[in-house]
Each structure stands twice: as structure tokens, then as C-alpha cells.
Amino acid sequence: MPENAQDLYQRSVNALRTPPVADWDTWPFDDNIRPRTLEEPAAEPPRDGEGGVECDGCTKPDADYFWTDDRWRLIAFGPSGLPVVVVLEPRAHYDTPSELPDELAREMGVMLGRVERAVMTVDGIERVHISRYGEGAAHLHWWFMGRPTGLRQLASSFAGIWDDVLPPTPDDVWRDNIAQVAAAMRAGG
Fold first, then answer.
1. Do the Cβ atoms of 96 and 69 come closer than 8 Å?
2. Measuring CA to CA, which residue among 85, 74, 109, 88 is closest to residue 159?
3. For residues 146 and 82, is the Cβ–Cβ distance under 8 A?
4. What is the pLDDT of residues 52-90, one digit of tens each?
5. Counting Cβ atoms within 10 Å, is residue 178 exposed (0-12), middle (13-18) or buried (19+)?
6. Which of 18, 114, 158, 178 could be joined to 189 by an S-S link, Cβ 3.0–4.6 Å?
């Protein structure tokens, strides 16, 4: 029988541990850390656009995006700490990849590669971290975070945290980076 949230809570509440993250090269902080108190399971808060109602991803105009086509849109948030952070969304409202019709799901795979290649055209990008969370918004979206060459400390699952820790990329550099991604998308990625 699988564990439910209450079972996991009961098993974990007095047994939390601190992983050896301070030993990891990618951990962005010094000093000791400790786990927060695990809160009891509670009702899930509503997400933006739940069920396609009042969805920011559906109502945002194309002008907010730096690249669009008939089925996909690409938006940049920033400037932030990493040189490039962009988000890919389907134009139509879907919450999860499993909801996509087969044709759009196949196209999504192509788009993930296309956007990654476009981000890689920015000078000095070594790797692109692609993630999907969907905890705050119910409109399917994929994050693309460009990691600079030579900064291995920014690698892997902490790239998003490093994006918040690093000072923002200078505005003119950030705009040039996004323009490079847009040009690559227009050229076919």
C-alpha cells in the first residue's frame, strides 16, 4: 500500500536529516544549515489559471513574449543572475505534458531541443538546464537556464538558486543575449 501525505509526514516529522550539501561544489551557501520543521499536510492552494480559468499564460499578449509561433511562445524573465533564463509555453492551455494531444506532445520534444539550441547560441553558455515545476501556475511551462562556461559551481539542480543569488546580468548584456536567442528561434533554432 503506498504512503499518503499523512503517512510520509508521520514517518518524517521527527527524523529529518541534513544532506551533505555543504560538501557539494554546486551548493551556493556557506555555514551550517538545518531542515525547516516539516508542516503537516494541508489543502493545496489554488494555482494561477487552475482549470484554464483566469490564466495569466492564456491572457498575456504576444507582445510580452520575445518569440511566438502558432502553437508556442517564449518569454524571458530578467535580467537575473544567469545570462539567459527563458520559459517556453504552449499557446493553448494545458497543465501537464500528459494532457497534450499526441501531435503537440511530439512537437514539444522538438521545441525543447530547439529552444536549448537557441540558448546555446549565446556566447559563453556551456550547458542549458531544462526544468518543469508547475507549482505556482497551471499553464504548462518549461524553464531554460543557461549556465556560463567555466562556472561549474552553477551546475545542476542549484542553477535556479544561483540565479537568485547572483547579481542581475547588466541590462544591455541581457537584452543582447535574449536577442541572440530570438534570432536563433527565428532561424529555426
1. no
2. 85
3. yes
4. 889 999 999 999 999 999 999 999 988 999 999 999 999
5. buried
6. 114
147 within 8 A of 125, measured Cβ to Cβ? yes
Q: Residue 89: helix, strand or coil by DSSP? A: strand
The answer to whether 78 and 43 have CB atoms below 8 angstroms apart is no
Structure confidence at residue 189 (pLDDT): 58
Q: What are residue 5's phi and psi, to 5 degrees?
A: -60, -40
Domains, the chain: 50-186 (3.30.428.10)
Residue 31 has pLDDT above 90, yes or no: no
At 133-151, the pLDDT tens digits run 888 899 999 999 999 999 9
Omega cis (within 30) before 45: no
The amino acid present at 165, given as its one-letter code, is: V
Q: Provide the 10 A C-beta neighbour count for residue 141.
A: 18
**Is 185 within 8 Å of 67 (Cβ atoms)?**
yes
Place of cell 561549474: 152
Task: Using a pLDDT cut of 90, give the percent of the chain over it.
Answer: 65
> Which of 13, 7, 70, 49 lies closest to 139, judged by CA?
49
Distance CA 184, CA 146 (A): 15
Q: Please name the residues in contact with 186: beta carbons below 8 A apart, sequence gap of 6 or more.
A: 67
138 close to 55: Cβ distance less than 8 angstroms: yes
Q: Model confidence at 188, in pLDDT bands (50, 70, 90)?
A: confident
